[in-house]
Specification:
About 35% of the residues lie in helices and about 15% in strands. The chain is of the alpha/beta class and about 375 residues long. An 8-stranded mixed beta sheet has the order 3-2-1-4-5-6-7-8, with helices on both faces. β4 (about 130), α6 (about 135-150) and β5 form a beta-alpha-beta unit. Mean pLDDT is about 85; it is low at about 1-10 and about 255-270.
Amino acid sequence: MWDTMDTDEAPSSQRYQRHFGLEGWGSAGQKKLGKTRVLIVGLGGLGCPAARYLAAAGVGTLILMDPDKVELSNLQRQVLYDDADCGSTKVSVAGHKLRAQNPLIKVVEIKDYFRADIDPDFVASLDLVLDCTDNFASRFAIHDICRQFSINLVQAALYTWEGQLAVFDFGEQTQGPCLRCLWPEQPLDGCVGTCGELGVAGALAGALGSLQALSGLRILLGLPCQKRGELFILDGRNMQSRILNWEVCTTCSCQRVAKYDKAHVLATHPTSDFDQLNQKVILDIRETHEIGLDDYSILENYGASRITHLSKSKLVSMSAQAIAQHCGPNNEPVTIICSAGVRSAIIVDYLKKNGYQNFVSLDGGMMGIKQRR
């Protein structure tokens, strides 16, 4: 829609009219938002208001992730739900209400936890992640994945009358401390008590969730935002706020988290097109459940001489030498494939940095081949 008509002619012009006069937003910014993909992890007290405002603002695709069902005790602060929703999954209720709120956006529902082995191709497709979870394990897992794949992240947390907000602009390639610089040792879940045990002010959740949405929108629009290494703290007892600063710690565990610039990897390492598979060895690094019944027949029709499989979940614990040996004789040309060409490019980058120059990534992955047929 945005690419085929002027903003003034678009059906959405009246909906977003109050954005057009804002400095740094305008019609160009609105078009930009309409092309973005945002993941919200957790649809509780923080995720509900954040989702409401991102949907209203017109992000292109809003992806909701939460495994839980609505409970009566949620309603005090989780403003997307009401009594009639109890027992229903949060993502289905939220998805229905957000589509009704703004039918111009796409809403995707994922009834699951955020997992450390989440599909890298999915992560790489994101422009922003909002962490609205309530436990340290999820918070660190989300942070590490976003840092690894250079995805912008906005985190918030609640503790009785206090709220905290941190912005990690990993996608902007800026330098700065990460969450593990603040917490070199990951705290155990429950070590500071839970909302169920200590209570939480519902309106405080609304305030912090709204600030997450605001910070995320400024990142998506390319506007200045809270700096990395600044923890914004709001005290709901006296309405005072302060900033806690922390520095890069060169010895913290984040230094051991591999960081890949997706755009750099895809641009600087050789890729193989579909027509160049003739007489090539294929290394398929997809998980078993991703492999279609006819996938290998398709690759053989393109002339692949031999196909070997090594899932990325196993591959990540192997040395470059072991991966190369798995593929056969040294210097034999090998094309690595995954679903969309992102994971394969990362593995090729790793292998080449370790001296193995006979590997290339299949541009577009298996999905690209199927779309071309």
